[in-house]
Amino acid sequence: MEDILLRAERIYHLPxxxxxxIEFAQQEDFLFLQRLKQDFQTGRNRFxxxxxxxxxxxxxxxxxxxxxxxxxPFDYANKVGRLRxxxxxxxxxxKRIGTYLLxxxxxxxxxxFERLHLFTDTEEAAFFYQSMGYERINWAHxxxxxxxx
Length: 149
Prior knowledge:
Layout: E1 6-11, H1 18-27, H2 32-42, E2 53-59, E3 62-71, E4 80-88, H3 97-109, E5 115-118, H4 123-131, E6 135-139, E7 142-147
Parallel strand pairs: 4-5
Antiparallel strand pairs: 1-2, 2-3, 3-4, 5-7, 6-7
């Protein structure tokens, strides 16, 4: 793979290019990016509570990945973050973009949370999270976690 210049940043507004990622996600039968847009626009989830953030990855100023961090609604002690709406443009998968984004999110999360939880229903994503040190668990609403040391 040729070297590509990546830029990850915390975002406070949805990028206009999100619609392109939504189209790709829908072609894969993933609806969570459309929910991200709806929830953000309605104010239901703007990733703006304590410890929360939304991150985007750009290459040459083009949005290629997005992922967010929320307070886990199933943890009442506010010690658990929840990885949400994590998506990489199909043309950029298997090029360490997901690793790059996840590492950014984890670095941010460690200042606020003791561990991260997530739910995925694809084997490809499950393999990715396991390769990143996440442990498979079988809890309601959560099937992977990572405890920060």
